[in-house]
Specification:
Helices cover 49% and strands 13% of the residues. It is α/β, with parallel strands linked by helices. Helix 5 links the parallel strand 3 and strand 4. Helix 6 packs across helix 8. The longest helix has 20 residues.
């Protein structure tokens, strides 16, 4: 009884004083809950490139990609004979492409414009709803004066950055062996020099591995300027894909999670096999990446 009386007395005193004791208790509980709460788990989104299905028309390539469980699609211009982007430009246009994507419940992620360049396809990308345009950086990675060369390169991109602004799109520069963007130092020079939110990096682990550069370190250096991530490793045949080649992609995803990467993870390979073989390999890759993702909080 004494305990009950003491409790009621304390509670009454709290109300009499404007409930400071009760309010302090609530505030303490809220602060404790906030401190113990975990941030929302980073979400991995998957896309792949139409060049994986070069021998199929764009409609069939998109259907294959959607049926494999991808959310987004990267459409290639004429590299290695890929017909898709030029076919879209000549036959479908922006609205026609949007119809194909809607039919397959795919989102447009990007145009890869290594052949033809961004300026040729900028308006089409905007008409289709906007996205990322992926291109290279040209030669010049070796020798002194890296920072000056990077500044000059980024300066030369101003007209394309203006197009990206006009057409609600982004420009992503891919790293490549022998290119200006190819080493951790060049990644740092790019990030430190670039001031445009419309310009960033397309990171290809394949080329980093061949130069013995840490993929995880390159992801972290790129940070918020990472706009495109190729899930692509230095191996042969379908071994270039995650889950088939030897790379432990959990480490890649951990680095992407650390920087809160908001774009797509894009399984990729060159020298594609026949469509059915390609589909089977990509299915393994998707399943593997999902298992890697499930391990992130383990």
């Amino acid at each position: 009884m004494n305990t009950r009386r003491e409790f009621l007395k304390t509670l009454g005193a709290g109300f009499a004083a404007g409930t400071p004791l009760l309010a302090a208790s609530v505030r303490g509980q809220a602060a404790e809950a906030k401190a113990s709460a975990k941030p929302d788990k980073w979400r991995m989104r998957l896309s792949t490139s139409t060049i994986q299905f070069t021998k199929l028309p764009i409609e069939q390539a998109c259907k294959r990609i959607a049926d494999l469980g991808f959310e987004g699609v990267d459409i290639w211009s004429g590299h290695a004979g890929c017909p898709h982007l030029d076919d879209v430009a000549k036959r479908l246009g922006g609205n026609g492409l949007k119809a194909v994507l809607a039919k397959n419940k795919l989102k447009l992620y990007s145009f890869s414009v290594y052949r033809g360049g961004y300026r040729k396809y900028a308006k089409l990308l905007g008409d289709a709803g906007g996205g990322v345009a992926v291109r290279g950086s040209g030669r010049g990675g070796k020798g002194a004066g890296l920072t000056a060369r990077m500044k000059a390169f980024i300066e030369s991109l101003k007209p394309e950055i203006e197009l990206a602004e006009k057409y609600d799109s982004y420009l992503a520069i891919e790293n490549h062996g022998g290119a200006l963007l190819n080493s951790l130092d060049s990644f740092k020079a790019f990030v430190d020099t670039n001031t445009s939110k419309r310009l960033g990096i397309a990171l290809a682990p394949y080329h980093l591995q061949r130069l013995k550069v840490s993929v995880g370190d390159a992801i972290k250096v790129s940070g918020k300027q990472l706009l495109f991530f190729y899930a692509w490793q230095a191996s042969k045949g379908t071994g270039q894909l995650p889950g088939i080649g030897p790379a432990d992609c959990v480490e890649w995803l951990k680095a992407l999670q650390e920087i809160r990467y908001k774009w797509y993870v894009n399984p990729f390979m060159h020298h594609q096999p026949e469509p059915d073989t390609m589909s089977a390999a990509l299915k393994k890759s998707v399943d593997y990446l999902k298992k890697c993702y499930d391990k992130l909080d383990a």
